[in-house]
Amino acid sequence: MLLYEQIRKNKVKTVFIVTGFVLFVLLVGAAISYVNYGDAIPGLIFTPIFSLFYVGIVIMSSTNIVMKMNRAQEVTSVEEHRFLWHTVENMAMVARVPMPRIFIINDPSPNAFATGLKPEKAAVAVTTGLLERLSREEIEGVIAHEVAHIKNYDVRLSTVTLALVSVIAIMSDIGSRMLFFRSIGGRRDQNQNPIFLIIGLVLLVLAPLIAMLINMAISRNREFLADASGAELTRNPDALASALEKIANVETPVEQASSASAPLYFSDPLKKKVSGLFSTHPDPVERISRLRQM
Known about the structure:
single chain; alpha+beta; four-stranded mixed sheet; 9 helices; 4 strands; about 5% strand; elongated
């Protein structure tokens, strides 16, 4: 019951966080409009249009960009890596999703990630270090975790939220520049409420940081969900916990990983050892503890 309760709670929590994120994006747009023109309505109209356009562009090219960014090489036949191929195939079959494309990253640090906007377009990438350092059961657990991300549409969610972070950064930059040039010209709407104006200015400055923190919260929550879902697929949470323990104890970062792709990985590939609000992944100790309790 603990496993299914964790899955349910994480899904509900994600809905609340994502809803809050969307409302925050609209709030930032309204604040920028009010600070510059004394009217929030134009911002509420323009922000959804711009966000949908920008998110659409990011979504269309995300998979290929991520794989090229991490220098991943595709495995195109079972003969190239029979064990990995069959493991991914088996986990996809258990999860009832189409078999994802398989990629290998030539890097000694053990790790993995999944990408793709829907199960039919999904891909899984693993490092050579993962294949060399982990046992078969542990590799199966990590693959199950990544397939769970695909099944739960986590990668699409991550792509959309990351795009929204960029949207807020772009809008904040434009809003700041507009405010600067308007202040030089000495133009100011006399009907602006001082309290709303101050709130708008604070939002304009802090919006990129707040958006990043919300994105990290979503990422951490989906990792817990993928752990629980992966354990459900393999019926072997101990193997997944053992894999996480080994990967977390490796101090070497994944050389090809960037800060943009870091949230996609099974465990923090940059090895920053940052916890709390500024972490893209939950504390490994907490993840392991939850898995051990299943």
